[in-house]
Amino acid sequence: MIDPRSARSNIVWSMAAKLVSLLVSIFSVPLLLQMLGTQQYGTWVTLTSLVAFISLLDLGVGNSMRNSVASLDDTNSEAVRFEFIGFFRLLCYVGLIASAGFIFTIAIGDVAPRNSYAMLLLYLPILMLLPLMLGASVLQGARATGVQAILQASGGWAFFVCIGFWAWIDHSPSINSLALIWSFFYLVSLLLVFALALSKLHLPFSRLFGVSIAGLPRGRLSVGLEFLVLQLSSLVLYSLGNILIFKHLGAGEVARYDVLNKMYQVGLSLYSVVIGVMWPEITRARAARNEKLLKNIFWNLAMIAGFFFAVALLGAFAAPSIVSLWTQHRIQVETREALAIAGLAVAQALAYVGAVFMNSFEKIRLQILLGVASIVCMIPLSTYFMNLGVGIASVPLAALLLTISPMVICNICALHLIRGMKKYE
To answer: Which domain of life does this protein belong to (predicted)?
Structure first.
């Protein structure tokens, strides 16, 4: 039986954690701009934005685990634990191989030589401890999203306290120092989440040790790989902005884009909390074949997305004044740039309504086809707009155009999946 109180509680606690994190992010921007300057700030946010791509190395098995844990009961508990152990060992190997490849690339290649130490400090610890990322998926599937959100956000809160202290004593840290402190707090929060995940699975840490992956659940790995392609397309569409702008327009323009984008991520992040909480609820309703509950969830999410639509577009007209005040007049943006990012955020919010149902039902292949098409088109389309002089609006405009079709298709498919369910008796 689905417990609605659990969903409400998770939404409240996740929202609270997200709001605190958003406030931390808002107040971090002027502090970092003051300590680093516009150019160095642009470099810093570009480096940290690349952390999102490391999540691709989990081969998508995190999303597979989320669905497995969401369907957990007494009859399949040992099978889920077995799946977790297999994936943990697999990611140990992936992390070690990726770490070796990364060190080799830095050693012999000419990859951002001025920031090579910062890159090592940021990325290498996360690569080596890659299997710990499974913890968040387990807690989300176990409907402990609120606790997971608080623990995972705690690293960012501690980092903010640190840079706040540096600003108070008028200390200007190097990017290397920031990278070291950021990685330390990030990994501590990751360890806390992982420890709680083991507790939820009633899985002793000693069972994780071993070198064999012979018993790896290949069927679930196949589902995970499908999720991986889906994650890749999403990252290309929505996380390449800083990198593309850095390459074509420079670090100063990255700072303008990043600050404006952060403003819209406030609302979208809060909306994503609801999506994340409802994913396991949809999975449980699907397992119970509860068509009525699935319909209610769909239309409630659609109403929330509609509210976000109105707020995002209205906010675009206030964005230039907000950004100017927020950054103490160091950064200026235009309304047309805000409208491009607002339009993309709205399209994402509407697309997520249908996509979360398709993910819960593990109907991923259509999304993969749409995602591959987006990957092929994103970089050349963004570059085309930049060559036309569209500026920092090029990336969100390209992503918006590439999101419209998936937005419509995913919602139609979600309704079809819901109607195909037999009513729960």
So the answer is: Bacteria
